[in-house]
Amino acid sequence: MDSGTAVVIGGGIGGLAAAIGLRRIGWTVTVVERAPVLDDAGAGISLAANGLRALDALGVGAAVRGAARGQYTGGTRTPDGRWLARMDGAALERALGTPIVGIPRADLHRLLRAELPAAALLVGVEASAVEPARSGGGPLLVRAGGRELPADLVVAADGLHSRTRRVLFPSHPGPAYSGSTVLRAITERPVEAAGDFELTWGRGAEFGHIMFADGRAEWHAVLNAPAGHRYPDPLAELRHRFRDWHHPIPALLAATAPEAVLHHDVNELATPLPGYVRGRVALLGDAAHAMTPNLGQGACQALEDAAVLAAAVAGAPSVERALLRYDAERRPRTQAVARAARQAGRLGQQLAHPAAVAVRNAVLRLAPSGVAVQAILRHADWTAPRVG
Fold it and tell me: Sign of the CA dihedral 331, 333, 336, 338?
């Protein structure tokens, strides 16, 4: 398809990746982000091979790998430190060409922003409407902060609470609370930890960490809790709750500043959307398939979306045909990954009954050593399309 003009609503990881992909195939792209600062306030992120392959297709994989730390050692434990399953990052690297890597979300966001000209980013501007153009300049018009942006294609990467999704699918129930809430932070200073990545499962609780290249760590605590429940002093609550859990959990919390702790309920699109496109508008990332974090695939799937979208637009005779291909490729895969993530949470962090926890732990201990690798391969072994 000849080059055109696109507007991307949302300047998160998925939105920036989509803009990079479309620019890579010769399109003019404007990213509209309502936040006053174009940055990612999240803590850390793990990227599996599929996410890295998508970044490679978009031309930024090498830069991300250079800023990340490979996750070669670690696994899943019980609160007293006993192993349930070990992760073999070297086996993953042999199978996929890369281990899982960990990187601060802010660093990933910065590397993606660096691929786009400053003039392509409208920050602190909200996209209020997408409507047919009155005359010329593209089939669609995006109203944003008093501006009218013509667009041959609109990419709605506006997150879990996507306004665009509500307009396109008004009967869809929207996000649903998963039953879990997550607190997370990055330590103030480097910490000592034996593994690059670990998860610890208690009863209705999970504590995990990933190590970064500079020696700091991101940790997260996921708890069964009512929606909206908050603590007067979140860090003090976690230090008390996890005081008897194995090393390095107390040390990670001790190395954290109280103001660094983020707290969000885990919401998802539990009801799958009937489509990711309407006319010349495509939903991408959490706007299309927000999922629980139990497989670490949310950002990876958004990056896949971006690569597939750019390849589809480049290879189709029209935007409409391109978006039909995008929908056909992305909807089955992302909705399957979302179902698998939900199930992983129910059998992992959310499991609270002592007998059920004991059975799960026994099954994990008895499983062959390659089962964990095969579980990761099931979602990470994805081939990226050629972009540009």
Answer: negative
Question: Looking at residue 136, what is its pLDDT?
Answer: 58
Per the CATH hierarchy, to which homologous superfamily does domain 5-70+101-175+269-347 belong?
FAD/NAD(P)-binding domain (3.50.50.60)
| DSSP conformational letter for 36 | S
Q: What would the pLDDT profile of 275-316 be if each residue is shown by its tens digit?
A: 999 999 999 999 999 999 999 999 999 999 999 999 999 999
pLDDT reading at 73 higher than 90: yes
**Pairwise CA distance, residues 2 & 344, whole Å:** 43
Q: Could you tell me the pLDDT band of residue 39, with boundaries at 50, 70 and 90?
A: confident
Supply 384's token pair: 């990226």
Dist. CA 33–CA 124, nearest whole Å: 6
Q: Region 70-78: what's the mean pLDDT? A: 96
86 by Cβ neighbours in 10 Å (0-12 / 13-18 / 19+) ranks as middle
CB of 155 within 8 A of CB of 9?
yes
What type of residue is 251? A
- pTM for this entry: 0.97
| Mean pLDDT across 317-321 | 96
| 20 vs 29: CA distance, rounded Å | 9
Amino acid identity, residue 388? G
Q: What's the rounded Cα separation, in Å, for the pair 141 and 157?
A: 17
Residue spans of the domains in the chain: they are 5-70+101-175+269-347
Query: Which of 171, 201, 187, 375 lies closest to 275, judged by CA?
Result: 171
Per-residue DSSP letters for 295-363?
A: GS-HHHHHHHHHHHHHHHHHHSSSHHHHHHHHHHHHHHHHHHHHHHHHHHHHHTTT---HHHHHHHHHH
Instruction: Reply yes or no on whether the pLDDT at 381 is more than 70.
Output: yes
